Amino acid sequence: MDGMYPNDICATVEADRAHVWHHLFQHAALETQDPRIFLEGKGMTLWDQAGREYLDAVSGGVWTVNVGYGRESIANAVRDQLLKLNFFASNAGNVPAAQFAQRLTEKTPGLTRVFYANSGSEANEKAFKMVRQIAHKHHGGKKWKVLYRERDYHGTSIGALAACGQQERYDQFGPFPDGFVQVPHCLEYRAQWDVEEYGQRAADAIEEVILREGPDTVGSICLEPITAGGGVITPPQGYWERVQEICRKYDILIHIDEVVCGLGRTGQWFGYQNYGIKPDFVTCAKGLASGYAAISCLITTEEVFDKFRTDPGDKLSHFRDISTFGGCTGGPAAALENLRIIEEEALLDNTLAMGALLMDRLQELKDKHAIVGDVRGKGLFCGLELVADRTTREPLAEPLVDAVVAGCDAEGVIIGRTARALPGFNNTLCLSPALIVGSSEITRITETLDRVLGKIAA
């Protein structure tokens, strides 16, 4: 490695290799290669320590940098706020938290209250705890179970992994707390039932689980509006209408995990708004501040909030939870400016227009390459499921899926895929470019995919 980089970068690479424990990474690989270190980002472009330039088609690798890199106005908003007040525990208020809560609830009609935390996992944990406390306070300890869906993912904590529908995410981390119950997925391409109205049948399967468990024991259901890391699964027609009907029938709170879809990714402020859902909880993180500061939110209704606003003399009546870094002011300051950018630059409109273009180009790739079995998505949130055989729908072997990702990377385009999630089904490529993407970047992404898919299939 000596001589490959300037001296200061050499020192950084060695410090990284010796001391940083990277996420989702097998460090044995660094015995034969250098870690990749990104030095700078601007718009949708990244530069690494070797001076290589990349087009980022996955918004920071995990669906986060919605408004792109290098936004000086967000950095300035955070800086200015930190100089005024950087932190106080969130049992007191601060200006950006109050302002952003108001702006956020304007985007979520029917939801009125915002609980701050610092990660999507943590936001989901808050909802699970609220459901449990409501069960004790209002249902005699019943209605404590949380339903979750096969293939969905809700975070890295033990509680969130108890509600994880991806086996390779939760393997080796158990045992998990009781009361989390799985319902079937709704991916029609991998249909469990041979019926005409698949969406309704997939939703009816949820009712079957509720009846098996006992409706008086089920407090909530936690679902992604569009399944993300489990394969970019858009819900089939009629699914969400029936799910909502079932939940209202049995007095089950609807918890929508918007950590990925939230704040513009699908062309609506939130993914659930594409489907006419009226949720009781919405959890969000990632795109709230586009990665410029850590922030997550649980948004809920006044009805849920009122369940904790009871006898002030009862020291156990309120929601007894705190997130230390929910008191950081930089997160809501960044989120306010991030929201302003999305509005003033009409990025929801751009997401719809560029998302339609991207889907058209991906359908063309499906028509051209037999290796592409299915194309799914909404807005700038798209997936291509790769198969070894279109007739049998046999998933493409993971090393070949890896080769597609590596081939694009070699051409300077960073894409994602399902990984360490579903045994035998980690075969979906994931594309989620920033909401600022233009037609030229869409062309580059899809033309790169075209070349690489052609090589893999040859």
Which features characterize this protein?
458 residues; alpha/beta; Aspartate Aminotransferase, domain 1; Aspartate Aminotransferase, domain 2; 2 domains; seven-stranded mixed β-sheet; five-stranded antiparallel β-sheet
Descriptive account of the structure:
With 458 residues, the protein is α/β, with parallel strands linked by helices. It has 2 domains: 36-65 and 347-457, Alpha-Beta Complex (Aspartate Aminotransferase, domain 1), CATH 3.90.1150.10; 72-344, Type I PLP-dependent aspartate aminotransferase-like (Major domain) (Aspartate Aminotransferase, domain 2, 3-Layer(aba) Sandwich). The protein is built from 14 helices and 16 strands. The strands form 3 sheets. A 7-stranded mixed sheet has the order 4-10-9-8-7-5-6, sandwiched between helices. A hairpin with a 4-residue loop joins strand 12 and strand 13. It is globular and about 65 Å long. The model has no long low-confidence stretch (mean pLDDT 96).
**Main sheet record:** 7 strands, mixed
Alpha plus pi helix count: 14
What portion of residues belong to β-strands?
A: 15-25%
**N-to-C SSE string, H for helix and E for strand:** HEEEHHHEHEHHEHEHEEEHHHEEEHEEEH
Q: Give the CA-CA distance, first to last residue.
A: 35 Å
- Could you name the CATH topology of the largest domain? Aspartate Aminotransferase, domain 2
Number of beta-strand segments: 16
Strand order of the largest sheet: 4-10-9-8-7-5-6
Helix content: 25-40%
List the helices and strands and how they pair.
Blueprint: H1 7-19, E1 38-42, E2 45-48, E3 53-56, H2 59-63, H3 72-84, H4 95-106, E4 113-117, H5 120-138, E5 145-149, H6 158-162, H7 167-170, E6 180-183, H8 198-213, E7 218-223, H9 239-249, E8 253-257, E9 281-284, E10 296-300, H10 302-306, H11 330-344, H12 347-368, E11 372-377, E12 382-389, E13 394-395, H13 398-410, E14 413-414, E15 416-417, E16 428-431, H14 439-457
Parallel strand pairs: 3-14, 5-6, 5-7, 7-8, 8-9
Antiparallel strand pairs: 1-2, 2-3, 4-10, 9-10, 11-12, 12-13, 12-16, 15-16
Helix pairs in contact: 3-11, 4-11, 8-9, 12-14, 13-14
GO molecular function: pyridoxal phosphate binding; transaminase activity
Keywords: Aminotransferase, Pyridoxal phosphate, Pyruvate, Transferase
Family: Belongs to the class-III pyridoxal-phosphate-dependent aminotransferase family.
